[in-house]
Amino acid sequence: MSQAFDAAVERARLAATDLLAAARQVIAWNSMRPEDARDDVDFAVLSRRITSYAPDWRLDDALDDVDFASRARALIGGISASLSASAPGPAEKVVTTEADAIARLSALAAECERRARVLRS
Questions:
Q1: What is the full DSSP assignment across the chain?
Q2: Please, are residues 73 and 108 in contact by the beta-carbon 8 Å criterion?
Q3: pTM score, two decimals?
Q4: Percent of the chain predicted with pLDDT > 70
């Protein structure tokens, strides 16, 4: 496998892990109780949550993003394993398969990065 494929796998894994961390942070902030607050930031989050009448839309997104990140991680592992286990064939077929895998990994990474940005905004 090429260095471009390895870089695409690493970028996708990092993006999925980052999305999972962002989603878990939003969930933790929205499930925080007053006795769990440790510093000024925690108290500010609690204050905003208590004084707001509207539910935090990011919590619903975060719950969906945890599932998405888990599925993305499984898909990344599947793409990586399938390309590693593919039987050597004509050189053109291997390049096309690898190029397709890189494109899929790049799309997954871009979607994970976009979702993480939305959660952090």
A1: --HHHHHHHHHHHHHHHHHHHHHHHHHHHHT--GGG--SHHHHHHHHHHHH--S--HHHHHHHHHHHHHHHHHHHHHHHHHHHHHSPP--HHHHHHHHHHHHHHHHHHHHHHHHHHHHHH-
A2: no
A3: 0.79
A4: 83
